[in-house]
Amino acid sequence: MKIIRSTIxxxxxxxxxxxxxxxxxxxxxxxxxxxxxxxxxxxxxxxxMLGIYQQMAVTGYASGDMNSISSVCGLSAxxxxxxxxxxxxxxxxxxxxxxxxxxxxxxAIYARIYNANTILEGLQSENKITPPITEQLQGEALFxxxxxxxxxxxxxxxxxxxxxxxxxxxxxxxRTPIEAVYNQIVQDLKEAETKLSDxxxxxxxxxxxxxxxxxxxxxxxxxxRDWENAEKYTSIILEKTSLYSLVPLDDVxxxxxxxxxxxxxxxxxxxxxxxxxxxxxxxxxALSLRPDFxxxxxxxxxxxxxxxxxxxxxxxxxxxYPFKYKVKSSTTVTEYSMVFRLAExxxxxAEARAYRDKxxxxxxxxxxxxxxxxxxxxxxxxxxxxxxDLLVAIQKERFVELFSEWGNxxxxxxxxxxSTEVLGPIKTQWSxxxxxxxxxxxxxxxxxxxxxxxxx
Amino acid sequence: MFKKITLLGVxxxxxxxxxxxxxxxxxISGTIxxxxxxxxxxxxxxxxxxxxxxxxxxxxxxxxxxxAIGTSIIITSIGYASKEITMQKANIVTIVLETAxxxxxxVEVNAGYYRVRDRERTGSISRITSETIExxxxxxxxxALQGRVPGMEITQLTGVPGGGFxxxxxGRNSISSGNDPLYVVDGVTFPSSRIxxxxxxxxxxxxxxxxxxxxxxxxxxxxxxxxxxxxxxxSRGANGVILITTKNKTSENLRVNVNYSxxxxxxxxxxxxxxxxxxxxxxxxxxxxxxxxPSSTDYDVNGxxxxxxxxxxxxxxxxxxxxxxxxxxxxxxxxKSANYMxxxxxxxxxxxxxxxxxYNKLGINSSLNLGANESRLKASFVFGYTQTKSNFxxxxxxxxxxxxxxxxxxxxxxxxxxxxxxxTDIILNPMAPLNNTIDAITNNIIGNAVVNYKVLDNLTFKxxxxxxxxxxxxxxxxxxxAKYPTSNPTSANRESRFGNNFNKSWIVEPQLNYAVNxxxxxxxxxxxxxxxxxxxxxxxxxxxxxxxxxxxxxxxxASVFSIAESNYSAYKYAALFARLNYxxxxxxxxxxxxxxxxxxxxxxxxxxxxxxxxxxxxxxxDEKFIKNNISFxxxxxxxxxxxxxxxxQIANYGYMQLYNNTASYQGTPTLNIGRIANPDFAWETxxxxxxxxxxxxxxxxxNFQFAYFQNRSSNQLVGLSLPPSVGSTTIQANLPAIVQNTxxxxxxxxxxxxxxxxxxxTSINLTIPKNKLVSYPGLENSANATNYIIGMPxxxxxxxxxxVDKQTGLYTVKDFNGNGVRDDAxxxxxxxxxxxxxxxxxxxxxxxxxxLDLFVSFTKQNGNSLLYGISYxxxxxxxxxxxxxxxxxxxxxxxxxxxxDANIPKFTTLNTGVSNFNLGKTTGTxxxxxxxxxxxxxxxxxxxxxKNWFNSLKIADLQINIQGQNLFTxxxxxxxxxxxxxxxxxxxxxxxxxxxxLTF
Lengths: 456, 1000
Description:
The complex is a heterodimer.
Chain A: H1 2-23, E1 32-33, H2 35-38, H3 42-58, H4 69-76, E2 80-82, H5 88-91, H6 100-124, H7 131-156, H8 167-170, H9 178-195, H10 210-223, H11 227-238, E3 260-264, H12 273-278, E4 287-289, H13 291-296, H14 303-307, E5 309-314, E6 317-322, E7 337-341, H15 342-355, H16 359-372, H17 378-381, H18 387-402, H19 408-415, H20 419-423, H21 441-446
Chain B: H1 11-15, E1 25-34, E2 44-47, E3 53-55, E4 61-68, E5 72-76, E6 83-86, E7 91-97, E8 108-110, E9 115-117, E10 125-129, H2 130-134, H3 141-145, E11 152-156, E12 165-169, E13 182-185, E14 188-190, H4 201-204, E15 218-224, H5 227-230, E16 241-246, E17 255-266, H6 276-290, H7 313-318, E18 322-334, E19 338-350, E20 358-370, E21 377-393, E22 420-421, E23 424-425, E24 437-454, E25 459-478, E26 495-518, E27 521-544, E28 560-584, E29 588-599, E30 608-619, H8 624-629, E31 633-647, E32 659-665, E33 668-673, E34 684-697, E35 702-714, E36 716-721, E37 730-735, E38 738-754, E39 758-775, E40 796-799, E41 802-804, E42 811-813, E43 829-832, E44 834-847, E45 850-864, H9 889-892, H10 911-921, E46 928-930, E47 933-944, E48 957-971, E49 990-999
């Protein structure tokens, strides 16, 4: 009897351990997809990549909306006035460490980095993606990772650098020094450059191509004051005249304009979040341009002052707003969110050439921008301008050309060491440590190895 | 010992022949039958000294040889009171055994995978039988358990039929996973969570799946509480197990039961709202306080609305009587080797709301048993189908009872919705939302087949296969007729939602039973496996752009579609379980249970876990030294148990890294990672310990049960905070946080009078629960930092110390940390929201053919205050706002002038008053109130018509009854109802039902 019983129990137990493991394996839910499926199918893998752009475009740091880098850096610098309490700490350069906008930017950028790392890992492991697609997606993911670290390191200084999705080791990481982060950015971009082609992979200019990577490389080398490389990469782009050229001011921000190097496509059936935020039809609820910027920064007859800036008078007060994007709201989509455009490349090369003492070349690049804006070229008015004066003129030109775009002004002041000199006098609570945003409290609370920036 | 058995068939025996010599030995034979005249097979017949024993055959016949005259013979059979007779002469006797309902220790209790005699029970199992259930006019079996099961907290969330309940057995074990018990109906797991119904959640408050079960089809409900009882359910036993067994009592004779009852439901308690005069006075006082005059939009007081008009919105909106009718027929019959039962039931209940709404339930239940008792192979089948049709509205009309009492009539003289009055628009018409309807059809199929095969005399192989499916189709409509016409609704505003969902599961459980008697000891063992698969799917399509309100039932009449929700998930589960029970001298019992579970909710390597328990019991009253010394002690048992169970009530696929579809980019659907997956999380474990004492005094005239339990759940599955840079702010993980539930459960049952024509039983139960968060590493940095406090119950809330300022008449918050700003540290007052103790008191009186049952439930608790449910401060009005009338209570303690020591801030018309009011009634201590209550939960009076009245008819039994539920509530709570504690939800209803029961 006992033998029978033990045999049966044993048989059951063995059966259990052999079959039950199999039995309780489940398929992925129909409403979601597991990574292994994503990387078994070209279209799904592409969808995962597009997911990163979509998330960047729809809201937050890269979108141009209220919480974007364009807005918060513009407020932190001398581009915008503030009209609500949420954004006021940026305008006052008094950021509490638990500021929710900062936390949102930090969290979202890192979420995109996580997604990029997931794609890179997925493409590295065994998969069924066809090789050209693998190349393309690796290029895009590397670019995306570099792009996001580029803004992190400029906003926060040293930041934790993750190249894997291993949350366990990542969650105890220390901050990586700025130089090492830039090194990784350059390395990723150089690898991406080899993987991406000159043509845009789809009909719109909303997925990065080789020129997009090179644009970012040029920006990175500008930050790093590596003038030779900055000039090298801008030159490569500026020579691609079959794809890119400067266009009339009113056409610059149209979708797929010839000036576009990379745009983000807004949510289906809508135009840009920046247009929606910035164009005023009543008193501003968030931002408006600083009147002193509007009145003091432009030379007389600068077409940009009339073409790219408008105003509205509400109860006797004049509010200025950027009018680069012309559409506040419409279901007919004519504009995409600009990330990189050709004009900036002219200005980067002008600066790099000036530093390399190629003044005539620098003037030539600067004049390309000035001419479009209806201004007299330096070539005619001041061909013998000194290097120092030329550098000042280039920075001034950058301000009026690139205002309200991607915090360029904030980062230009920062990389030129001019933040305190320029912002100190107009910001009552300015302190030099404000050039870096605080690391969000939530990050430090959950990773004791992260040290806060000075001044917070 | 008058409760001892009455002997019917033995009468003859007693009259015969006293003169026979004691030494004479003789054979005895006879038949053992029950009171219905049915033979009782497998009854044990033995002499008292156990020298001769036998069993009755399937016809109840037995024969014992060589019995000395004068020998005592004992007849026992499970489910029947044992009987002792003295042999007087060689004889053929008929022995009638009575059902052992009185002998509590002989009752067999369903422990899920096995049945156990109450005497031998080592675990904590409470049992409610059909007798109790049938006395209650209810539509959900959970209502039958309210207040009757110690350790079980049941809260009815709404009075709408089919609506939701919150059920907790022995407290809240889990911080963030589910706390629902496991439901098993006839061996098939039944969903505990709501039937997915995103469209109608406001009205039904999570439709309860158990409403699909007809209470009158239930034969018993067993509630498994401690480790010994629940460990065999392993990972799903942590929150207790509720076993529902449907009626399967069959007989060989053709039996027909007919039940019919009819009655009504109504809102039992009215809120004391202001009449027009009081309301206008309140408004004027508010204007005076604000130093303002009524503006052009203050319709209620500026002359636009009639200041003398009064509408009792409460009775207009929720004041109707909801008709109830309940009819059922069951037929049973068969033969020795095959019998069946089929029953049909129709239940319909209207609503108390204005408008034509209702709920209808139609069910068929059947069972078939094959194989006679002695057959080696036996099989039984249970099959049930229930369909409910409900036709409700999307918003609970209780929301609108606080409409201004002088608001214009809802309908004009033509009976149409009224939107204009005195040349002004009526922006909110409380009857308009009655047109926003939700129709739902829910089907439930449940089936179970059990095959028993006796491999050897002691060894039985059993396999149970079950299937359960609930599907629901719903249509929610928002037609334009419900909308304010001045808003010019267009076809785009006509929205219909077409929802479809199902939840189906099957379960296969093979098992082996081995039982053997070894002299004084008995071994009972069981080993089995369980395989289960569950699938759920939910789809909800939002259609709009209908040309007319009338075509909104037809999806093809819509022009715009979107997927409002689409969800699918699967769950698989496998287990091996075993039980070994050993009893010695029928006094010492030890019960070992173990289970190895595998669940698809966990990642590779974490899918399997072991759960076990040990239970022991000692019937000390059978020890000689007690028997001889304490004569009034008829039964005494101590039992104790300890074990480990688990909880896997987390979302499916939690461990998987998943990409979800997000919006499109360049017209291509995109994918995004929803979360960081943790493949390493595992079960929550719950260690349960219990000790209990059971006493029966004076021949079980008085029975007591005391139990003390301590459950500690750890390895809590919570969202663990991460540095957001790693890609997500939280991750599902096990945290070594410990939640402890302790409690004392008392039960007493007193048989105060027991005579032939008189019977009075009182029983009472009381539970004193205590919940405590013992530890939570990293609490201060987690997302839960402001929700929980170590050393306090989980259901603790932190409040500002708000008082009404004597100068301003507004709420002010005490600056506890004195830093000049209102911050989290000022939330220093901790209030517990929940039950402090609860229980019930049952009185059953039978006099001849009458029986009367009274059940009172009581709860001592803190809950949401009346004020918490009030949306706007007293005195506030806006044309589109419905919640402006106020309960009279607030008049008593309001601030009226400088220096007043008041509880209610000054009446105000200002918008700033709204946020100030919220400060107190939502974030201040004013939001909590004592919501204790004593409720006359159930009264049932029935009369069985004496059999001799209809001897000539073929009627076996005829009973008429009157039943009432939630008849009367004694409470200091000022809101609508202390149980559901919401001003905008229909409270549990008062119900009256009269019925007739007929058996042929």
